[in-house]
Amino acid sequence: MVVSQQRLFGTNGVRFIPGVTHDLDFVIRLSEAIGTYFGTGEVILGMDGRKSSLSIANAAVSGLMSAGRDVAEAGLVPTPALQYAAKSSSRGGVMVTASHNPPEYNGLKVCGPDGVEVPRLDEQRIEKIFFEGSQTKADWKSVGVARQEASVVRNYVTGILSRVNVKMIAERKFTVVMDLGNGAQCVAAPYLVEALGCKVVTLNSVVDGDFPGRGPEPVQTNLKDLALAVKSVGADLGVAYDGDGDRALFCDEEGRVLWGDQSGCLIADYLLEKTPDATVVTSVSSSQAIEILAKKRNAKVIRTRVGSVDVSRTILERKATFGFEENGGCIYPPHVAVRDGGMATALMLECLAAKGVAFSRAFSFSVSAFYQAKTKMQVDRKKVDAVMKAVEKQAKGRVERVDGIKVWTDERSWVLVRPSGTEPLVRIFAESDGQDKADALLKKFSKVVKTASI
Ligand code: MG
Questions:
Q1: Cα(217) to centroid of ligand 1, in Å?
Q2: What is the CATH number of domain 371-453?
Q3: CA of 454 relative to ligand 1 center, distance in Å
């Protein structure tokens, strides 16, 4: 096993503030390490619409070429489009993006020839090459070449269309309001939804690295314009994406924004109905609603550590049908086993077309019977063990240790306390069958964490 002392990769790729925490020289050396890790063949490289993305992409191209790799430059594309392009031609991929982080951030995401982010152990291999300075340095005759690849978005849209029933969706003549959040899906999602025969109304539809519309992360509180637009144009649904277009949140025709658990469960229910003996993968922090509906559909649920890489890798290992996260990430492996806002949109439209009722009436199962509450607290790393022991002491019933500690306080109530892997933080999630109960649980365990961390 390769163990590196220093870490560059966080939960999802390498993130930094260009020109403040890291410079372009860092990007070149890291890209040389990534090129060395890939070893042979062409690498495809894409970027999101951040202000710093083009300079970082250019530095990354140089670093990859310097390590002897040829590079296909995809330009500005959603992250899942880049990952689909990597999978389609079995080559490594690098995406310049900081996903939903504030405008000043950027980063690099590395994916393997299956399109999925490289496994955790391979992240450590890249880090080892970087910190040892053992990057391959190509000489003048073995340096890589670069070329443009202009078909990435077109192929991505065509790939999604081939996975859904276009005719059934088009017959419903849906009107869809799309809040593109000035992010990378501006160049793909509206064309996908138009190709599905829908009338498209867009908000924040110009790529802008300042994210002036509603910021790069869609959450229930900043989607009021989307909800208002859906109601005022009489649309069938609304959808909003994060900065790099891998996460999607939906709102129904009444303007109610669904959290990722709810939309994930709705799509899962539709897919499980069609797929016998199916398996769904989700992280330990998602709603228990998925177990309830999976039982109804005779399906299996696998829980992973928090983070889309863990969900994606488990989907591939267990040949699962579908995966989702509570933040709006949906993973449909027949297309590519990564979070994909475009694929999620097409699946949701197919699901609504098949059900033939308004979005607000499409929930026939008990997902809406659960309520969540969450918070995060600063905890010194030295105090984390004491905090986790104090949490464990509170456990009287079932305890799960997939990631952090999940304590069940009754049949329908749990609290998850999880130390962050990258920051001196502890995250606390609670779920119950009433908002008051979830809030009370969160309050109780926040107190336990606070007392133990002093
Ligand atoms: Mg993202």
A1: 8
A2: 3.30.310.50
A3: 34
Rounded to the nearest whole angstrom, what is the distance from the C-alpha of residue 363 to the centroid of ligand 1? 26
The CATH number corresponding to 155-366 among 3.40.120.10, 3.30.470.20, 3.30.360.10, 3.30.70.20 equals: 3.40.120.10
How many helices (DSSP H) and strands (DSSP E) are in the chain?
14, 21
Domain extent listing, the chain:
14-149, 155-366, 371-453
- Vertex 397, ends 396 and 402: CA angle to 5°? 110
pLDDT tens digits, 2-60: 444 588 998 889 999 999 999 999 999 999 999 999 999 999 999 999 999 999 999 99
pTM of the model: 0.94
Burial class of residue 210 in the structure, from the number of CB atoms within 10 Å of its CB (0-12 exposed, 13-18 middle, 19+ buried): exposed
Structural contact between residues 348 and 250, judged by C-beta atoms closer than 8 angstroms: yes
Has 52 been annotated as catalytic?
no
Residue ranges of alpha helices (H) inside 318-378 are 341-355
For 350-366, how does the pLDDT look when each residue is reduced to its tens digit (9 = 90+)? 999 999 999 998 876 55
Residue carrying structure tokens 């989607």? 223
Amino acid found at 68? G
Dihedrals phi, psi of 424, to nearest 5 degrees: -75, 65
Report the separation in Å between the CA atom of 78 and the middle of ligand 1, taken as the mean of its atom positions.
Answer: 9
Ligand 1 midpoint to CA 389 (Å): 33
* C-alpha torsion angle, residues 359, 175, 152, 184 (rounded to 10): -80
CATH for 14-149, among 3.40.50.300, 1.10.3720.10, 3.40.120.10, 3.40.50.720? 3.40.120.10
**Exactly one of 99, 263, 283, 312 is catalytic; which is it?**
99
